[in-house]
Design a protein that fits this description.
Shape: elongated
Order of helices and strands: HHHHHEE
Number of helices: 5
Distance between the termini: 50 Å
Strand order of the largest sheet: 1-2
Largest sheet: 2 strands, antiparallel
């Protein structure tokens, strides 16, 4: 089955390599606002960062789509879906675990409340 996704089958390493042929590390860092491209970048360190940071990976994928896939009919839809996914992730905050105070008793019977930072 053939897919209309222009990123189908394209690995992140290939995306980064293709962008490097067009732009320098500094240009990518300035355009995307990602510091890993500015501070002593290597292919390996940038890939590691992009795999662990979804917002940065989205920016790189969008830059790739705009640079190399602008004539593909599904590019605009894909860019919109990437941005929508990022917006949903940013709007839903992760639930915070409530910290319960524990009680510390001193020798004279006074009790101190202490919050566990575990």
């Amino acid at each position: 089955m053939q897919t209309n996704d222009p990123l189908h089958g394209v690995k992140l390493a290939q995306i980064l390599t293709d962008l490097q042929t067009k732009y320098t590390w500094k240009e990518m860092g300035d355009k995307l606002g990602i510091k890993c491209f500015l501070n002593n970048p290597t292919q390996k360190s940038c890939l590691k960062f992009l795999r662990q940071t979804p917002w940065a990976r989205s920016r790189v994928e969008i830059m790739y789509l705009k640079t190399f896939c602008s004539k593909h009919p599904e590019t605009t839809k894909l860019i919109r879906s990437i941005l929508a996914t990022q917006d949903k992730k940013q709007q839903t905050p992760a639930p915070k675990a409530e910290k319960k105070p524990s009680v510390i008793k001193s020798n004279d019977g006074f009790q101190w409340a202490k919050i566990n930072n575990k």
